[in-house]
Amino acid sequence: EEEPLGKRQKAEEKDDKDEEDVVPVHESLAQKSTDSDIEKASRTVFLANVSTEAISSKAAKKALLTHLSSVLDPHGMPVQKLESIRFRSVAFSTGSMPK
Prior knowledge:
Layout: H1 7-20, H2 34-42, E1 44-48, H3 52-56, H4 58-69, E2 84-88
Parallel strand pairs: 1-2
Region (Disordered): 1-38
Protein name: RRM domain-containing protein
């Protein structure tokens, strides 16, 4: 004897779907893949002793990116491009005297 469509059947259908769902895990808690970290580091350009203007001004940063990209082959396969830039040893003036 068939039961009419109701709350019980809908609840059973939801339970089936819940079993298939994977609980999301925050990226900081998930195990990191060392391969992806190595790949990301190989695509990152580390620059030191760069003017603070290149960091704070969009126009200056764009000029810096254009200059750095000038050595890349635009017709190379795969296409060469700068994906990430990290600035190192940047001195910011705080207005205070050294101790």
